[in-house]
Design goal:
single chain; 26% strand; Beta-Lactamase; eight-stranded mixed β-barrel; 5 domains; alpha+beta; seven-stranded antiparallel sheet
Length: 838
């Protein structure tokens, strides 16, 4: 409605002689979902009907009659099309306006409209003065068209994916039409859609022709859909298997039409034949494998049992068939003794594979109990029905026993039986915040003196003696652990720190009362103990341990064989000062060239008396008076202050710069240990590469040992170093294998050339079945991976014999060779490698 009065179109409707006629016009417009527009080309105005505004979601009074109003709603991508359609009509190029475009709805969305209109009035010169049109909402139609197009794309995609050929046959005219894929399947190449009727018949395999023609004839006569398979012979003589479908289609205004599809199933037929042969092979295999295999029906009755199942169940195959699986294979939970449900029954009901995770045990007819693992999978017929289940039973009695041993070993120190560091720290973390507990940190006095002068066996005896004293003398409920080396810790239930001091003092008396009797001599044992309260719930694990450690160091500094409680600013300050002094001593030694490179031979266990051609490089520090300082006294400080990278780099550079020529002249290779800090350095390989290039040493002479127990901070850098080093020709060895839980993770992450078994599994090899089992398993894994194995810390001939029997090729230890300065070792080896090579 305009200000000038009622719009002419409205006047037209109201002026109709029959009011009902005007109502019909309005109803027609409303029912069609159309909006009317009326443009006065002379006045430059445009009327928009109420239905047009409602079509866009607006009320009558929300939009004015601006002639360009409709353009404001047109989608930007459709604007040119919409304008051009009107311009062409006004110019007389088209009889009417008819175009599709999108308009923006009030809700922000877009609707598709069909715009139709034309010039209805012209002036005396024939120029258009008025146009009237209607816009119809065709959004639903457009959506249907898109859906239909998508559906057609899906159908075509399915045909393409299935390599399906389509054909049709007009029964009255005899006209046969093939698509291109039909021609491809039959091997006749590109050509017209219509093919001679004889094309199909002539290509049928002689043995299948009669049956195929009879099947299509029945469909043509009865209308029953055809589903059959047959063979064809392509022009090149190749025989192919086809699967065909056909049906008779009736249209009211056309003769019946046969339509069909085919697809090449040659591979499926060949696979089915191969599967049948494989099935027979599997049947024979099931008769011979070691695992028990049983199949059941849906009623849980046994339909098949292999010989292994009969042996496990103490029965015969014939006796088992027909029996209920629960009657002949009753299971109980090993811990609770409660009966367990049948895995086959659960597999049938769930239609999924069931892998029992409980601690299942089976008590046989002879009374013996066996730990078992059973895995049941449903048998599903081609029609989707579950017809039974297959049960595979593994006797894991021995494996479960070993698993318990390994689980125990994972949380306990193998030497003393105490909790290891990880397990102890878990208990300590749980105890932090308790007001009735304290942390004791114990460090043995002069332990290294016994360990280094008397031998590792004597040192181990001291550690066991102390461990036994701790467990026997500390209060009930105490958690005791060995943190490593000669360091122990305990979470002790006490009333307060004074109570903890009394407990620790009593413990020191008990430890001092112990004396080690070894090789006809007696050795005194002493210890220093630090105490830290752990009643603060905000205390973290590292801080609690550091406080007890600081107190222990204070006790040592005060004269050893003492007890000290943590006091902020006293013991901790002394501890920090001591650490700085140790680190400073290392820096001075490096500056004053007081570091010495030692070497220890690795021997071939097949000829252990011969000098080894492989040497492990060891680092020692000399004191100001020339005495040798073992690595245990300066390496920990270097590690704590991040100096190990400097030590390792010095060892690499010094060894190659000083001894590369002698090493190659004697045909020797050297192994250099890399700390976790060094291995995590992204710049390590560029440094090593430059040294190799400068010294011209053969990369094959270099072996870099990665300590398995070290915590690598940057695995990406470590992996890159291993990759680059091996690519250049250097070798990688995994040291201390088995000492931690990350052994196999390292094997998966790093490609190595050799494995060095941790000495903890070697020293007591003759007396420990567990150690022999671990060494045997490591040997098996190494041989599977094609890597060499070196046993560390060999100290007796019996261990050599056992290692050889377990397939270990190389060994290292005091039994063969004690470490000595590398220059002395190389002088003694002058010419040995050359003679061997010749």
């Amino acid at each position: 409605m305009s200000d000038a009065g009622m719009h002419p179109l409205c006047e037209f409707l109201d002026a109709l002689p029959d009011g009902k006629e005007a109502e019909r016009w309005r109803f027609a417009l409303e029912s069609a979902g159309s909006g009317v527009w009326d443009a006065d080309l002379v006045a430059g105005t445009c009327y928009y009907s109420s239905s047009w505004k409602r079509m866009l979601g607006y009320a009558d009074d929300e939009l004015d009659d601006d002639p360009d109003l409709w353009l404001a709603f047109v989608h930007p991508a459709d604007r040119h099309t919409a304008i051009a359609s009107g311009d062409r009509h006004v110019a007389g190029e088209t009889a009417r306006i008819e175009t599709e475009f999108r308009l923006r709805h009030k809700n922000g969305g877009w609707i598709w409209v069909l715009d139709r209109g034309k010039v209805v009035e012209r002036d005396a010169s024939g120029r258009p003065t008025r146009m009237i049109g209607a816009q119809t909402d065709i959004t639903a139609q457009k959506n249907a068209e898109r859906h239909l197009a998508l559906l057609n794309e899906r159908i075509q995609l399915a045909l393409d994916a299935g390599q399906v050929g389509l054909w049709q046959f007009e029964t009255e005219s005899g006209r046969l039409v093939w698509d291109q894929r039909m021609r491809d399947i039959y091997g006749i190449g590109p050509g017209p859609a219509e093919v001679p009727r004889s094309t199909w018949h002539d290509r049928l395999h002689p043995d299948d022709a009669a049956e195929a023609e009879r099947a299509i004839a029945i469909t043509a006569e009865t209308g029953k859909p055809m589903k059959t398979s047959y063979r064809i012979v392509k022009p090149n003589g190749e025989v192919r298997h086809l699967h065909a479908l056909a049906r008779l289609v009736h249209h009211s205004d056309a003769p019946p039409l046969l339509v069909g599809s085919i697809w090449d199933i040659t591979e499926q037929v060949q696979n089915a034949a191969a599967l049948a042969a494989e099935k027979e092979c599997l049947r024979i295999t099931l008769q011979s494998i070691g695992d028990a295999v049983i199949s059941t029906d849906v009623g849980n009755r046994i339909t098949f049992a292999n010989p292994a199942a009969a042996r496990l169940l103490c029965s015969t195959q014939s006796a088992l068939v027909g029996a209920n699986i629960d009657d002949v294979f009753p299971l109980i939970d090993e811990e609770t003794k409660a009966p367990l449900a049948s895995s086959t029954h659960r597999a049938v009901l769930s239609r999924r594979t069931v892998d029992r995770e409980e601690n299942a045990m089976f008590v046989r007819n002879d009374g013996s109990g066996r730990a078992v693992r059973d895995l049941a999978s449903p048998i599903i017929a081609p029609d989707g029905q579950v017809v039974g289940a297959v049960l595979v039973i593994q006797d894991i009695t021995n494996a479960r026993a070993l698993q318990r041993q390994l689980a125990y070993a994972a949380r306990h120190d193998p030497l003393t039986g105490l909790l290891n560091r990880g397990a102890f720290e878990e208990n300590l973390q749980a105890a932090i915040g308790s007001r009735d507990c304290a942390l004791l940190y114990l460090d043995l006095d002069r332990f290294k003196l016994i360990n280094d002068t008397v031998g590792h066996a004597a040192g181990d005896a001291v550690l066991k003696l102390v461990a036994n004293t701790l467990t026997a003398r500390l209060p009930h409920g105490t958690v005791v652990g060995r943190l490593g080396g000669d360091e122990f810790a305990a979470v002790v239930p006490v009333a307060d720190v004074d109570d903890a001091m009394a407990v620790a003092a009593g413990l020191l008396v008990e430890i001092r009362a112990q004396r080690l009797h070894w090789a006809g001599k007696y050795y005194e044992i002493g210890a220093s103990i630090g105490i830290a309260a752990i009643d603060d719930a905000q205390l973290d694990l590292e801080t609690a341990t550091a406080r007890a450690d600081a107190a222990c160091y204070t006790a040592k500094s005060a004269g050893r064989n003492r007890v000290s409680a943590y006091s902020p600013g006293v013991g901790e300050a002394q501890r920090n000062l001591a650490r700085i002094q140790v680190a400073s001593g290392w820096a001075d030694a490096l500056a004053e060239r007081r570091l010495v490179v030692f070497g220890q031979e690795v021997r071939d266990l097949a000829a252990p008396s011969r000098p080894g051609r492989h040497i492990e490089i060891l680092c020692r520090m000399t004191a100001a008076d020339g005495s040798i300082i073992p690595p245990g006294q300066f390496i920990p400080a270097a590690e704590r202050f991040g100096l190990m990278g400097s030590i390792d780099r010095w060892v690499i550079e010094h060894t190659l710069e000083t001894h590369a020529a002698n090493l190659m002249a004697n045909g020797l290779s050297v192994a250099i240990n890399l700390s976790a800090n060094t291995l995590s350095d992204p710049e390590l390989w560029p440094f090593v590469r430059k040294i190799i290039e400068r010294t011209r040493v053969e990369p094959a002479c270099l072996v870099f040992e990665i300590t398995e127990t070290a915590a690598v901070d940057n695995f990406v850098a470590a992996e890159r170093f291993v990759h680059d080093a091996r690519k250049a020709g250097c070798r990688i060895s995994l040291d201390d294998f088995g000492a931690g839980l990350s052994s196999f993770a390292y094997l998966k992450r790093f490609q190595v050339d050799s494995i060095k078994i941790d000495g903890g599994f070697i020293r007591n090899l003759a007396n420990s079945r567990f150690d022999r089992a671990v060494v045997a398993s490591i040997s098996t894994i190494a041989h599977e991976l094609g890597v060499d194995v070196v046993a560390e810390r060999i100290e007796d001939a019996e261990s050599v014999s056992i290692l050889r029997s377990l397939g270990i090729g190389y060994g290292q230890g005091f039994f063969f060779h004690r470490p000595q300065p590398l220059d002395q070792l190389l002088r003694a080896r002058q010419g040995v490698g050359v003679r061997k090579a010749s």
